[in-house]
Specification:
4 helices; 220 residues; Cro/C1-type_HTH; 2 domains; DNA-binding; DNA binding; Umud Fragment, subunit A; alpha+beta; 434 Repressor (Amino-terminal Domain)
Length: 220
């Protein structure tokens, strides 16, 4: 299998002696869909990676072909006590995706956002300065992410705005969903508008300037 392949689907499928049709049957899809996914003609979403990984007997992240190299991570926001997430904004109130620039060894994607943990907000899962990456997924497939750590978007009552909170999505006691927030009380019977699973975490990356004790910062 060439290293230029966009993912490892074909490589893993052939290792298990499966045809495209057999894999398609296992995940409930058409073989043409499998072919397009293997060749990168269709985007390999987290949902597809999970379904295909399960059929091939591997984890969802094993399906991706990821090369880790030094990259610039632009931290998009911060997570504080109670799992509450906020995006950085400039003086005009616009999203500022280049407020914090951090050099780490990881892969980049336009469908992912990075958050930095503040003040041990999610201890013992995460500590101050840890980074978590969340990935945009189809909001209609919430059931795929039950019991997973996700950034959940919920409507704020009597407004047209959304509140984002990091926690474990679980089935509600009566109906709907609850959100178990590390280190805080759970939220009951929430209405979910969107869910972004945590797809990567970087523990204690070299974020802080040792001389000043402040985050390395670069404005656009």
């Amino acid at each position: 299998m060439s290293d230029t392949s966009p993912n490892r689907i074909a490589e893993l499928r052939k290792l298990r002696g499966m045809t495209q049709q057999a894999l398609a049957d296992a995940v409930g899809a058409h073989w043409i869909t499998i072919s397009k996914l293997e060749r990168g003609k269709l985007p390999l979403s987290f949902e597809w990676a999970e379904r295909i990984g399960h059929a091939l007997g591997v984890g969802e992240f094993d399906v991706f072909r990821t090369r880790f190299a030094p990259n610039t991570v632009f931290v998009d926001g911060v997570i504080i006590e109670g799992g509450r997430a906020f995006y950085y904004k400039d003086e005009a109130g616009n999203l500022d995706h280049q407020a914090y620039m951090i050099e780490v060894e990881t892969a980049q994607s336009p469908l992912k956002d990075w958050f930095i943990i503040e003040n041990n907000a999610l201890f013992p899962f995460f500590q101050t300065n840890d980074l978590v990456q969340v990935t945009y997924v189809d909001p209609t497939e919430i059931d795929l992410f039950i019991d997973r750590l996700c950034l959940v978007s919920m409507p704020i009552e009597n407004t047209d705005k959304l509140n984002s909170v990091l926690g474990f999505v679980v089935n509600g006691r009566k109906s709907g969903f609850d959100l178990n927030i590390p280190g805080s009380a759970p939220l009951r019977d929430i209405k979910i508008e969107g869910v972004r699973p945590v797809t990567m975490a970087l523990y204690n990356p070299p974020v802080w300037d040792q001389r000043s004790g402040r985050p390395r910062q670069k404005k656009a």
